[in-house]
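Re: that backbone. Tokens:
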């Protein structure tokens, strides 16, 4: 069923463990979406300038920067957008925003699956004494018991601790070294897609805080967005750090992903 997509910015980076910057990302990605060097069609043939496809719902506003309060504000705002009958594409922000974003979806969509692209598993039980750290969102999500499957792709930094947490929660990981483009990726039921831009090789996406060589190409991620089997119900694109970007090229990669995701979210397939 077709639905309108709400694009929402989440300008938060106080849970980053290494560098600040992703709070500036939503507006850089918006500018790239509208850049006159390109057009508003998805590769799949959806006209993103047509009425009813998507609207920009602006940035989430925060009354307090307390970590727990920020997380709750993101969860509440996302539930409201879903309750209005829209599908939500969020622009981070660091990856900490995905815990409340995805939890809001899991509370609405029974049996939610997650397709997670990242250089990092983000499964720390605890990192720098911050339960909301961008190193921990998927540990928090698995603790809720509301996630059906978590499939992680692009991973190339797994340590012993995160291997244990992954095993404890039954997280499925296909490490980058084992990736095969012919792999069929599919889910039964609703799917949320979370894209950490450092899942790409830094050659394709230099504007991130944590450079991890040996990642996906832009085309490999586009192929995943287009081709995985399942009903896409929500998504986020996180960890763009404009301070590290070169000529806005990583913002342009994020904008291309946003356009393809909006097109698929709109169709709900
Ligand atoms: Mn991440
Ligand atoms: Mn990462």
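Recovered sequence:
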């Amino acid at each position: 069923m077709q639905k309108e997509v709400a694009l929402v910015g989440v300008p938060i980076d106080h849970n980053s463990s290494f560098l600040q910057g992703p709070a500036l990302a939503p507006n850089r990605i918006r500018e790239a979406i509208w850049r006159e060097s390109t057009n508003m069609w998805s590769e799949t043939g959806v006209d993103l300038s047509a009425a009813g496809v998507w609207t920009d719902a602006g940035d989430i506003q925060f009354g307090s920067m307390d970590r727990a309060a920020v997380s709750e504000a993101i969860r509440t705002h996302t539930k409201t957008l879903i309750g209005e009958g829209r599908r939500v594409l969020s622009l981070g922000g660091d990856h900490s925003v995905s815990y409340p974003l995805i939890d809001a979806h899991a509370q609405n969509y029974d049996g939610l699956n997650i397709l997670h692209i990242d250089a990092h598993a983000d499964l720390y039980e605890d990192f720098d004494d911050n339960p909301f750290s961008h190193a921990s969102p998927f540990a928090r999500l698995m603790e809720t018991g509301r996630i059906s499957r978590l499939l992680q792709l692009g991973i190339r930094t797994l340590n012993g601790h995160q291997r244990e947490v992954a095993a404890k929660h039954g997280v499925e990981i296909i490490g980058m070294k084992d990736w095969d483009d012919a792999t069929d990726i599919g889910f039964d039921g609703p799917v949320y897609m979370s894209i950490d831009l450092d899942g790409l090789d830094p050659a394709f996406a230099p504007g991130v805080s944590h450079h991890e060589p040996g990642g996906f190409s832009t085309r490999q991620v586009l192929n995943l967005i287009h081709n995985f089997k399942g009903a896409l119900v929500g998504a986020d694109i996180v960890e763009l750090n404009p301070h590290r970007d070169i000529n806005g090229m990583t913002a342009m990669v994020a904008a291309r992903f946003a356009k393809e995701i909006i097109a698929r979210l709109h169709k709900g397939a």
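The longest helix spans residues 249-267. Residues 95, 118, 120, 122, 196, 239 surround manganese (II) ion (ligand 1) (CB under 6 Å).
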